[in-house]
Structure formats: structure tokens, C-alpha cells
Inverse folding.
């Protein structure tokens, strides 16, 4: 058996596929094979627990481990780094819990916060410079860790209560679907619930549209007075939340 | 053969682990060097890199990776090497190490340190991969003996003979994990003292000490216990043969307060001092 064949067979054995590996190992290697088999799945479960800490708390040990094992069986790792494992775990959750949408949403929030944790650095925009901005032309650049998640449930409130070790609310649907934005300030990841109109404004600004043009667009959609008020509120919160890396 | 060599570094160090981040940032921790798990600092930014930059300002740092898969029959992933080189260029480590094992072939990456058969074919593969890595990183590689839990029917040589030939052919160096020698020896039926006698001592730049635990029919390299006596005994035997070397204690699970780790490191210092004096 060539080294390449041996390695393919060994991975097949770890993935519970038919394999000649039990023949290729030395006579008394049965317990050793079991060690590698256990270590493979065990490490991936630990990795998911580490990345999805609040989801784990929400589901409890047994349900989380069962979901993790289902995910591992369907998704062997491909990335160069273990840190990427679990990128699609929220999709597995949506499949496993179609009637409990908060489960997949808590998962997506865990993942986005983990990505923000060691995502790219950005210099913080100095708010003293806001006064000097020419708002007719200015384009806002957000910090590179900013992510937007669609939500139908109170997943944010659940996440916060688990993190603060407070009484965790029951899952419920929001009066209307909204969004959560995730970003990092300095070294600390944050998230906040936002309305759909703010999500739209963030997407327009992120696409390179000037803030003035963005206000025009909002006016067309929701009327001039409401738009001016909303744009002012959004900008104030983006500054306050240190979501802005630069204004050009 | 790499043009560069790795100068020996003598000292006693610990691994940088999250529960101790704050100690290293705010205290005068009495270690001579710090080892990092490279992959933990290969993200784009944020807290890990911030902590590492501060640590690097105060201590020499050894980079220790777990994802190179130096034994892969289909070569080394270039995206991984590029990231590893970027980190090495940033922090200018004492050296870059990984394990004599394999994790990935094709598209599937087990993220585990899987055992290699000790065959001529595997030796050729490992040596070709080492030369590729040393060219890409522009520095010599240091490789560690992993804990293994089985052997292969086709094995043609001992692990220490494999290591000796590998260092001779490629000019790479060794990170000798004394606990892994003990664990692999117990699991696979070789005498750890034969291993120590056969290993090319002049290529060793670093020592790992760690604890293990008893699994079903195998000792497991769990790094969740203090260093046990048989591992200290092996350390005392090999240390006088190594000259200047960087010694550290690994702890990855059940991590105690930093002071406990420092106390254990003092045991290593004392044994090293005693056996050196006895040999003089
Ligand atoms: Fe080690």
C-alpha cells in the first residue's frame, strides 16, 4: 500500500467509511485505532462547543452533542484551520430545528461574534473630525468586522441573558422580522438589534454610496421628514457605537 | 539544506495559554521564553495578535504549530505556509516547529496528529516536504515527535532512526517531547531509553515536558496533569547530552494558575542543574 493510499484509508476509517486500515496497522493496534477514532470526533465536538458556547447553553449538553455529531457526520473538516470548523453549523441547526428558529439564530450570532473576535483590525475614526466632514460628498467606511444577521426571534435577548448568567427568557417571535449587527470595538465584539431600514442604510453605505445620496434614497422610500430623522439617528448610533472606521 | 542554522537557545519557558494572558501582560513572569500555538495567532487581528505583540516585546517567542501536516503524501498546503510565514516574519521567533505526523490528505483535514509508517517511502515524502517548507519559510524547520497509539505492519525502522535520517538529509532540527517518548514507548512497546540513546542529540533545540493519562489499553497524551516521575527521569537522562536547549512544560487542559506552572518549571530547572553538575 502506498503512503497516499494508506492516508486516504486512514481518513476513511476516521469518517466511518469502508477502510483497509485495520489490516495495515500492526497486530495489536486495535485500541490505538480506537484512540484516533475517538480523538477525531471528540476534538470536533469540543471545537463546536468552544465556538458555539451560548447555543450549547441554550440546548443543553445532550441535545448539543447530538446536533454536533450529526453535523460532524455530514461535514468533514476541509479548512487549513480548526477555527473554521463549524462555519455551517447554523444551517445544520435550521435543518434540525425547523420549528424553533431561535436555535439557528443563536448559532449564527455565536459564529458572527467569534469571527469578529479575531477579524481584521481597523483604526477607530476620531469623532472630533466629524465637524470637518463635507456631508455632500462623504462616504462612510465601516469597521471590517461588521456583519448583518436577519432575525425573526428574540435570539439577542436570549444570548445576552445566557452570557450575563441571568434568567433566560423564553424564545418568541419578534413583532416583525429585524436584523442584528455584529462588530468589534477595539478588542471587544459587540452586537445590537436594529430595524430593517437601518440595515438597508448600512448596506447602501457599505456599497460606497455617499451619505447624502443615501439620505435621498431614504426620502424616496419613507418621506423626507422621517428620512432626515432616521438618517440622523443612524449616523449618531454608528458614531456612538464606534462602527465607523473612516469617513472619506 | 537550508542556508540558515538555528543557534541554540538556553532557557526555561512556558506555553502562552488564554487563562494566563493577563499574567503575561501585567506581571514580570520569570520565564526565559514563551511558546505559542501558531494557529491561535493566525487570525486577521483582534485580541490574540494584540496580546502576542505585547508578549513578543518582552520575551523571545518560539512558534509551535499543529496544522502543517509534514507527512502528507500530496504535499503541503501553500495557503497555510503563506500565513505561517507572515506570522513568523511579524514576530521573528526563535524557531518554527510542528510535528512529525500528518493530518490531511486531499480535501479532508482530520486536525489530528496522525501517525506515519516508518518506511523509506514515508521518509522520502517527509524529507521532500521539509525541504519545501524550509524554502518557503526561509528558515530551518523544527519537528517534534508526537505521541502515537499504534504502529504499521510495514514499518522498516524505529522512530529514532527515522528522526536521525530525517535531520541528516534535510538539516532540520528536533523538538524532543520527553512525555511523548514515554507515551509512545508504553503504547508501542519500545524502551524510551533506547530512543534517547538513538536520537541525534546535536539537532535538539527544544524539550517538551508534559503529563498524560491512562485510556483504554493506551496512555493518552492529554496534557492535563503535572509531569509524572518517569518523564522527569527521562529528562534527567537526556538533558546533559543536549548542551544549550530550550525546555518547557506543556499544559493544554485542566490549566492551573500560572504560579503552579512556574513551580513545576522550577523542578525542571533544579533537575537540569543537578544533572549538569553531576556530569561536570
Ligand atoms: Fe509536545
Amino acid at each position: 500500500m502506498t503512503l497516499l493510499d494508506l492516508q486516504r484509508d486512514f481518513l476513511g476509517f476516521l469518517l466511518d467509511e469502508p477502510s483497509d486500515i485495520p489490516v495495515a496497522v500492526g497486530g495489536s493496534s486495535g485500541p490505538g485505532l480506537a484512540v484516533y477514532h475517538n480523538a477525531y470526533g471528540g476534538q470536533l465536538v469540543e471545537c463546536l462547543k468552544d465556538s458555539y458556547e451560548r447555543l450549547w447553553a441554550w440546548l443543553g449538553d445532550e441535545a448539543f452533542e447530538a446536533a454536533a455529531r450529526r453535523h460532524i457526520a455530514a461535514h468533514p473538516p476541509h479548512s487549513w484551520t480548526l477555527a473554521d470548523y463549524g462555519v455551517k453549523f447554523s444551517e445544520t441547526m435550521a435543518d434540525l430545528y425547523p420549528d424553533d428558529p431561535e436555535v439557528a439564530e443563536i448559532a449564527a450570532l455565536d459564529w458572527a461574534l467569534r469571527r469578529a473576535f479575531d477579524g481584521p483590525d481597523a483604526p477607530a475614526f476620531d469623532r472630533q473630525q466629524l465637524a470637518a466632514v463635507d456631508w455632500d460628498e462623504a462616504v462612510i467606511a465601516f469597521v471590517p468586522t461588521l456583519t448583518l444577521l436577519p432575525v425573526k426571534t428574540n435570539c439577542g435577548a436570549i444570548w445576552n441573558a445566557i452570557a450575563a448568567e441571568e434568567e433566560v427568557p423564553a424564545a418568541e417571535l419578534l413583532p416583525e422580522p429585524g436584523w442584528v449587527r455584529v462588530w468589534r470595538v477595539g478588542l471587544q465584539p459587540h452586537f445590537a438589534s436594529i430595524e430593517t431600514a437601518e440595515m438597508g442604510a448600512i448596506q447602501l453605505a457599505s456599497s460606497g454610496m455617499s451619505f447624502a445620496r443615501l439620505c435621498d434614497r431614504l426620502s424616496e422610500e419613507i418621506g423626507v421628514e422621517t428620512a432626515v430623522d432616521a438618517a440622523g439617528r443612524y449616523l449618531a448610533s454608528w458614531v456612538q457605537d464606534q462602527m465607523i472606521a473612516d469617513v472619506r | 539544506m537550508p542556508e540558515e542554522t538555528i543557534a541554540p537557545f538556553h532557557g526555561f519557558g512556558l506555553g502562552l495559554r488564554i487563562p494566563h494572558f493577563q499574567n503575561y501582560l501585567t506581571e514580570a513572569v520569570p520565564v526565559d521564553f514563551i511558546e505559542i500555538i501558531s494557529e491561535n495567532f493566525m487570525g486577521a487581528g483582534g485580541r490574540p495578535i494584540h496580546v502576542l505583540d505585547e508578549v513578543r516585546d518582552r520575551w523571545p517567542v518560539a512558534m509551535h504549530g499543529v496544522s502543517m501536516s509534514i507527512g502528507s503524501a500530496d504535499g503541503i498546503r501553500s495557503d497555510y505556509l503563506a500565513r505561517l510565514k507572515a506570522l513568523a516574519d511579524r514576530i521573528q521567533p526563535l524557531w518554527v516547529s510542528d510535528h512529525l505526523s500528518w493530518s490531511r490528505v486531499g480535501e479532508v483535514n482530520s486536525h489530528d496528529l496522525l501517525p506515519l509508517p516508518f518506511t523509506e517511502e514515508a521518509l522520502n515524502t517527509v524529507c521532500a516536504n521539509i525541504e519545501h517548507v524550509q524554502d518557503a519559510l526561509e528558515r530551518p524547520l523544527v519537528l517534534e515527535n508526537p505521541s502515537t497509539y499504534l504502529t504499521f505492519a510495514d514499518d522498516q525502522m524505529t522512530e529514532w532512526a527515522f528522526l536521525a535520517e530525517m535531520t541528516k538529509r534535510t538539516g532540520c532540527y528536533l523538538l524532543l517531547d520527553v512525555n511523548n517518548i514515554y507515551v509512545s514507548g508504553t503504547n508501542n512497546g519500545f524502551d524510551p531509553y533506547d530512543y534517547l540513546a538513538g536520537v541525534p542529540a546535536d539537532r535538539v533545540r527544544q524539550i517538551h515536558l508534559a503529563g498524560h493519562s491512562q485510556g483504554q489499553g493506551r496512555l493518552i497524551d492529554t496534557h492535563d496533569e503535572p509531569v509524572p516521575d518517569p518523564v522527569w527521569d527521562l529528562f534527567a537522562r537526556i538533558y546533559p547530552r543536549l548542551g544549550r536547549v530550550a525546555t518547557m512544560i506543556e499544559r493544554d487542559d485542566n490549566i492551573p494558575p500560572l504560579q503552579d506552572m512556574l513551580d513545576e518549571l522550577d523542578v525542571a530547572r533544579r533537575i537540569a542543574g543537578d544533572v549538569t553538575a553531576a556530569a561536570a
